[in-house]
Amino acid sequence: MVKLFFVRKGFMLQITFLGTGGSTPTPNRNPSAIAVNREGELMLFDCGEGAQQQMMRTKTGMKINSIFITHFHADHVLGIPGLLQTMALQGREEPLEIYGPRHVDKFLYHLLSLGYAGRSFEVKAMELRPGDVVRRAGYGIRAVKTVHNVISIGYVLEEDMRPGRFNRERAIELGIKPGPLFSRLQSGHSISVEGEEIRPEQVLGPPRPGRKIVYTGDTRPCESVIEASEDADLLIHDGSLSEETKEYAIDYMHSTALEAAEVAKKAAVKKLILTHISARYSDLGGASKLEEEARSVFENSEVAKELMTIKVGYRDK
243 by DSSP, 3-state: which? Predict the structure, then answer.
């Protein structure tokens, strides 16, 4: 059964790569952590060690309302204890929600029993299974099945459909004066002009899609991610290894850069960013190799750089 969790709203969509490395930290890459800011609403997807320092460096702030964990390997969660402790020392009072796969409640219980968060704010564990949706005003975050060597999930952040373009000339032809009535129609409400009802569809074009980003965490290529990523604006996919080390990717349940690109191509996404880069490819030369492999299949591919920030814009259609 699909569960829905309700919360809030926004327009800016900015993604900051706080940690882009694989299991072993390197001088060039921290373990996995991604900050997503949607109109001031700050979320973390995974929280590897050192994430709070990276947040200081990028000035994202720490007013996080939720953390979404893909799985419980250390390189994806060890940043949480320090982050909770810093929040407590800063006097945080607002509750914090931590979402994750099965056993997230046990994980959180043990963290809190060690006293990391103190008593200044409430921390809630919210278990998700594939298909569950965290519903917020204007968008939702859906858990997706991934294929790793422990229980794992990925996430799809997808905005609601937007109203179509407003036809100003048509509105004026219908006798509507520019001003508040325009806004009401743009917001989807009917209005009355000299006793005649005017409906939004008379002055609005077809509905337009919102933005859609997908974060896989650690995974082998799989149909569930391809389906979830269909027509996404951005796919952030495990691209740990190159084709020459594909046997390791299979053994440890990761993806090669080329395999991630094949997923992106099948899903017809707009852009692919590879992350969770193995330590053996951590320098610029290694990253270039992975990027080259991915681009041989899907041109709009890029290897994530540490502390890189990108903004996801709306499509015209």
Answer: helix
To the query of whether residue 238 is one of the catalytic residues in this protein, the response is no
Query: 13 near 315, Cβ under 8 Å?
Result: no
- Give per-residue pLDDT as tens, 142-181: 999 999 999 999 999 999 998 888 888 888 888 888 888 8
Rounded Cα distance between 25 and 19, Å, is: 9
Selected catalytic residue, list 75, 132, 233, 238: 75
Q: What is the pLDDT of residue 133?
A: 98
Pairing of the two strands 139-145 and 133-136 = antiparallel
Among 115, 75, 117, 114, which residue's Cα sits nearest to residue 98?
117
**Tokens standing for residue 291:** 């990027």
Q: Coil, strand, or helix at residue 79? A: helix
CA dihedral 197, 202, 208, 210 (to 10 degrees): -20
Full set of structural domains in the chain with CATH: 4-162+208-311 (3.60.15.10), 168-202 (no CATH)
